[in-house]
Amino acid sequence: MSQSDKNRGILEFAVTQEDRDHEFFLNLARHADQSEKRELFERLAAEELNHKNKLAAMIADGTISPASLDDSAGTGLFANGENVQLDPKLKSDFRNILANAIKREQKSSRFYEEMAAKMSDDDARQTFLTLASEEANHQLLLQNEFDCLS
Which of 49, 127, 128, 137 could, after both became Cys, cross-link 116 (CB 3.0–4.6 A)? Predict the structure, then answer.
């Protein structure tokens, strides 16, 4: 497998992860027992869908070229099999679901920071930094929900 193919796979996997996160938050919204929680999860779902669409468009229009990544691309979240599948239908309590979601958002933020550092194109770098910041904000929002349960 060429490095370009490997890098394309990393980028496409990031798109898939954003789609999974979108579905996860939609599922949480459907099961939320309070309107404030439902609105939060719907907002997070919409933002994850926006991330997915942004990445997919950048791949499609060539803004992010798989060749623009170096050999160490994806050494963070997505390359090490750390794809945490979260399903709110699991027989775990809401506290555990939030704790796992917080970790997932933290890992996503780190991944996008790593990707930003590998971009030679300023616009692509800024996009990844924006995604990292948004994922870090998701982490804070979820942490606030978690803290309210304590």
Answer: 128
